[in-house]
Amino acid sequence: MGDNLQAMKIPEGRTMISMAISDHVLILLDDHTMICFGKEDKGVCATGTGDGSPRYTAIENAGRMVLPSNEQPVQIASGQSVTLMLMRSGKLAAVGNNLQGSVGTGATGIYGISASTVGNNIPYVNLGNNMFIKSISAQLSGGDAQCAVLSTNQLKCWGAGVYGQLGLSDTNPRGKTSNTMGSYLPVVNIGSIPLPTCAGAGQPP
Predict the structure, then answer these.
(1) Mean pLDDT along residues 104-130
(2) 3-state DSSP assignment of residue 9
(3) Nearest Cα residue to 122 out of 43, 18, 29, 200
(4) Between the CA of residue 13 and those of 9, 37, 39, what are the distances in Å?
């Protein structure tokens, strides 16, 4: 530790804006690109390659994640089997394993290991028509659960609910079938508690 602890080597000439840490580590750079390293499992690094099996990548070998060409990530979150990217447009992109609904596509599958699920084909989480998102959070350990604060100052959560962590008074998962997302996904009742926001996101383009 101290002076003996080495600093991370991010791409030369770039500045780190933010970081999200789980089994895989996400770094958002100042050119609005992202790198991902650590345990690359079930598409969480959005490389568009691999078979979904775990592989381990050191930071010096981390390539750029394959993101939509017309979007800029402004906030990131990493969960046990999911990567969330809140775009400047207020849309929420996600990759990873949707076995428990963590990616929120409404269908089980792995997203991020094929060209059809990265870049301009990356899936977006459906939280309802004309819903823009202000901030996001991913559960770092245990069952995968994700939450987003909407532009309406409401909270929606999806993914695994085995411990009641979705705040919906049951233990059912949300996000692995189409009838659990969009307008079907209930708002979490938090009373009058103020919710956080992310600067630069949550507004229509």
Answers:
(1) 92
(2) coil
(3) 43
(4) 11, 19, 25
- Pairing label, strands 73-79, 82-87: antiparallel
3-class secondary-structure state, position 50: coil
Q: Can you tell me whether residue 21 is helix, strand or coil?
A: strand
Task: Using alpha carbons, select from 50, 15, 38, 32 the residue that is nearest to residue 86.
Answer: 32
Q: How many CB atoms lie within 10 A of CB 74?
A: 21
Query: pLDDT (tens digit, 9 = 90+) per residue, 76-94?
Result: 999 888 999 999 998 999 9
Cα pseudo-dihedral 127, 32, 199, 37, rounded to 10: 70
Q: What pLDDT band is residue 193 in, cutting at 50, 70 and 90?
A: low
Q: How far apart, in whole angstroms, are the C-alpha atoms of residue 84 and residue 33?
A: 14
Q: Alpha-carbon distance 119 to 103, whole Å?
A: 16
Q: What pairing do the DSSP bridges indicate for beta strands 110-111 and 92-97?
A: antiparallel
